[in-house]
Every structure is written in C-alpha cells, then in structure tokens.
Amino acid sequence: MKQFIYAWASLILLLVACNDKFLERMPLANISDADYWKSPNDLKLYVNNFYNQDALLPSRRAWGSGPYTIDASDGSETNIGINYNRRMNGEMTVPSSGGGWAADDWAPLRNINYFMDHYKKVNAPWDKVKEYVGEALFFRAIFYFDKLKKFGNLPWSSTTLSPASDQLYAGRLPRNQVVDSILLDLDNAINYLPVRGGGVWTGHVTKEVALALQARIALYEGTWEKYHGQKGTPFKVDGSNGTKFIQKAADAAGALIRMSEASGFPALDNVGVQDGYWLLFNRKDYAASKEILLWHKYSVADQVTHTWTRYSINGAGMGLSKSMVDSYLCLDGLPIASSPLYAGDHSLKDVVTNRDPRLRQTICVDDGKHVKWYETNLFFTTPTFEINGANNTSTGYQVYKGHTGDYTEFNASQSTQGYIYIRYAEILLAYAEAQAELGIISQSDIDKTINALRMRVGMTNGLLQLANIPSDPNREFATLSPILNEIRRERKIELAAEWYRMDDIFRWAAADELLVGKRPLGAYKKQWDNYPGATADFLRAQAALPVNAQGYIDPYKPYAAMDQGYKFNLNRDYLLPIPTNETTLNTKLGQNPGW
Questions:
Q1: 139, 262, 131: which is closest to 207 by C-alpha?
Q2: What is the per-residue pLDDT across 394-412, written as a single tens digit (0 to 9) for each?
Q3: Residues facing 295 on adjacent strands
Q4: Contacts of 270 (CB under 8 A, 6+ apart)
Q5: Predicted TM-score (pTM) of this structure
Q6: How many whole angstroms from its chain centre is CA 296?
Q7: In terms of DSSP H, where are the helices of 397-500?
Q8: Which is it for strands 292-296 and 419-423: parallel, antiparallel or unpaired?
Q9: CA–CA gap between residue 177 and residue 45 (Å, rounded)
Q10: CA dist 197 → 54, 184, 431, 438 (Å)
C-alpha cells in the first residue's frame, strides 16, 4: 500500500500548451493554483495532458511495441511469439513491489481527480466547461478499466486524497461496484461531450467515443461475470450474473448504430474497395475516417514517430497460428471442415483460396500481390526464417495486417502510420454479442453487424442466416449456441492481431478451452522445401524448424516447459497478484485468488 500512499501524497502536475493536435502540446512553466483555474482554456490545457500519457492512450513508439504484435506478447493462442508467454504457462510469481501497483501507476488517476476537485473554481457557464469535465471522466474510465482487467477488485477514489486519509488504508471494492462507478463516469461523459457527427476531427474525444468505450467495458464485465459465474471460478461475482452490464453494452452500442443510421456517422470505411480491409490499417491520417473513432497521430516534422515498419517487414517475431487461420470461413460461408471450396493448407496460396477475403489481407502470401516495399517494387515471396533471428515469423503465417509498404519511412526508422484505439467495427461486434448473450438477437441485428462486416470485404455468398447457421465439428465452444460461436468467430477474424484476444479469452473464462494443454501450431513446413529462389540461409533455417507429427510448424516444441501445452492455472492466472509490500502494509487489500 506504501506505493499507493505515495502516489496520492505527492502531486506532480504537468500542464501542456493549448493546441487541438496532440503532437504540439508542449510543457508550460510551473503554474500555481492561485494563478490557475481562471478560464475554460485552463481546463482545456489540463485535459490536453491526458492524451499524451501512455498509461491512458499508449503511443507504442518503442522498438517492437506496435499494436499488431500485442496479441502475441500477451500470449494469445491466435498470434504467436517466438518465445512462449510465461503468464499463460502459469510461471508468474508475486512481485515484492511494482507489478502495476507502483506510485507511477496511480499517477494518472491522481491528476484526473485533481482536475475534478478544482474545475469548479473556473467562473464560467457550464456549457463552456462541461466538455472538459467529460474528457476527464472519459480518461478516468480508461484508467480504471485497465486496472480492473489486471487486478479485479480495486480501491475507488473520485477525489484527491491526503496522506492521512482513511481511504488509503481501506480494502478493495468488489469489481462490479467499480464497474458501476466507471459506467456512471461514462454516462456523465456522454452527456457532457459534444457530438462529432460528420464534423471535423479535432483530436479530442466525443460523445461517440465515450459510447464506444462504455460498450467495450460493459460487455467485458458482463461476460466476465456470466462465464466465470457459470464455471464457478474463484473470479465469479457473488449475486451478479452480468446481465445488467450486457444490457448496458447493448444499449451503448445500439445508440451508436442508431446514430449511424440517422446521420451516416460512424460507419464502416472502404466498403467494396479492393483490399479495403488491409488498407484500413496502414493509413497515416484517419481524420476523414468514419470508422476510426479514436486514434493517435504521428508526425516526422514534430519528431513523433514510431518503428513498426522496421519489423513488420520481417515477421516481427510472431505469426498467426494454425487455429487462427483455420477459423476463417470459405466464401460460401461454410467452415473448412464442410465446405467443398476448401483448397487445403499445404501452401499459402491454397490457404487463402476461396476463403474469407480478410485472410488474404491479414497474412502474407506469395502471389505477387503482397507488397513489401512500394518504392522498390518488391513483393513477399517467403516468410522470414533465420537461425536465431529476432524478427522471424514464428509460424510461417507472417502478418500482413498493419504493414504499410513505405520503404522511405522504414529506411529512416520514422514511421507515421496511425495507431487505432477504437473503431466502429468493434461496436458492431459488441452489439451482436450483447444481443445474442441476452437471447434476443434477430436477423436484422445480424445484417447490421456480422453481415455488414462480411459485405465490406465482398463476402456476399457467405452471409450469416440466423435460421440456418452452418454446423462446424471444430467449433471452439462446444457448450455454447451456434450463434454465439459464429459471433465469437467473427470477432476473432475481424479483430485479428488487434490486441483484443487475451481480453476475450479472460472475460469468457475460456482459458480451459483455448489454452490449457494446447501448444499452438503454424503452417505446413514442407511447402518451402526447395522453394524456387529461396536463399541457402532461408532453406537452412526452414529445415531446422520444429514440427509436429503431421508436419506443421510447432514453435514451442523445443521448450520442456511446454511439453504438455500451456499450464495456465485456471484458479489463479486470470488476474495479476497484488505486490507483497502492499498487502503487508495494508492487510485489508487482500490478495487475488491463488496467489
């Protein structure tokens, strides 16, 4: 608890200059409270700071930290890193300090609450103030949601605390009570924030963004409570089955869909555009996008760039798994186990033949169409396999999603491809899932959501019909209804490699079905035997790849700790532990199950 106390006891306030563009917000000299809180512009200066805090909106500028590798680093079964994930294998231990609970980890909340304690000092009409209050509440919701996912039950504070405050020594509130407070913050933010509609992007959150975040958080908590409750895990919430939160998710997502129907914003981008799905993820500017509701802008001129392109060209040390690739339907809407269109998986070209077009736009294929660099007219031929190579693709299914093909930026290590935080497609999926979980989904709901996503990529012969859902002998969730299986499949595919998968596994309490006892596989290795034009180094590295009995790349086979697949502890590993120094200083904090 000591770190938590220090976080509140010391107030370090960073104020930033007034500019709607995140990139141009520069620090001001120290300003005292006596000189501050005079005008709405002071409030704007304060909340501008939140947009540049990695703890709230991560910029992912560091080497190897791009958004399209997060699923792999998190340890999902869909996106596989070169090294296995220790948390997913049950190897974590309780830290003595830090671990997401250090003073710096609580600093954003301290600064947000300081704003909430002082904004009323500004003598101005409410209409001139409420937008900035809405932004602060939005960021408090982001902060607490991140902590909720890590630790479950939490201390809640909506005001700055003194070192003598009894609240610093209180216990944690049950997670559902924390979420009640988060959603109340977002209810107020939604009321206070302006509607963007078809207006110009300003770099600030709007009513649409707050609704989207509310749908995300409510669906997370609702399904967490439902499935951990059904399975009787130590993480269930007594007296709550999640229904009220699932309904809240449906309401928030439904409100956005009604906005779209009434005004055309938000909406899906690139409908019917050739390779439009792939092109959605490599833009440098999303200001004109109707789908991308919240994003981070980079700029060479402002020296705010990243390095994702440096490693996306070589596999980024990860790759999609065979189970991920096998989930994509064929063009007739049937799973690979039953579709006559399925061409097999013994080559990358076969894998994408007659399949959901998003597959070809998510992995690299040696078809002369998957660009490596536009400027040099270079196209993908083989995955990156190197002996001891740090950038290898781990599975042979090299990720194409998020690659730009911009050689100039690659060569300068100064990429400006935008980072997407929230897009409308996620909201469509959230609405479909919430309606299905409530048992009230209709064909109209499916047409507005799942089928809209399939229509975007031209999958017109594979639309989902509620009255005729194809059976799949390999469906992931045998105890769930066919419609929930299809909605989860659609989410898995549409959001592939977009950092949602671990959250989904955890909120569905699905580690027993998707992780435990399983070792993820990759592509069929022999397809690259004597590959035309392959270098000797490539063939030597390819020959050394471990495989299973059927000849598929088995990345974790060499690890003794993975001999029986993931050893995720179902009674412990869904949440992180509270550091021991905190539980010693404040025994009321308790410890998470199993630790």
A1: 131
A2: 999 999 999 999 988 888 8
A3: 420
A4: 276, 277, 279, 280, 456
A5: 0.94
A6: 14
A7: 407-412, 424-437, 443-448, 450-456, 482-494
A8: antiparallel
A9: 32
A10: 27, 23, 20, 29
Q: Which two tokens stand for residue 497?
A: 């490699």
DSSP state at residue 23: G
Secondary-structure breakdown of the chain: helix, strand, coil percentages, each rounded to the nearest 5: 40, 5, 50
Q: Is the pLDDT of residue 413 over 60?
A: yes
Q: What is the amino acid identity at position 589?
A: L
375: Cβ–Cβ under 8 A, 6 or more apart, which residues?
A: 406, 407, 408
Instruction: Dump the DSSP string for 232-243.
Output: T-TT--TT--SH
| Beta carbons of 142 and 183 less than 8 angstroms apart | no
DSSP for 517-534 reads: T------BGGGGTT-TT-
Buried b (16+ CB within 10 A) or exposed e, 485-497: bbbbbbbbbbbbb
CA distance 467 to 480: 16
Give phi and psi for 16, each to the nearest 5: -130, 160
**Residue 474, Cα to own-chain centre: how many angstroms?**
26
| Pair 420, 298: CB distance under 8 Å | no
Contact yes or no for 85/75 (Cβ under 8 A): yes
For residue 266, say if its preceding peptide bond is cis, omega within 30 degrees of 0: yes
Is the confidence at residue 15, as pLDDT, over 70? no
Report the alpha-carbon distance of residue 7 to residue 151 in Å, rounded.
18
Do the Cβ atoms of 578 and 592 come closer than 8 Å?
yes
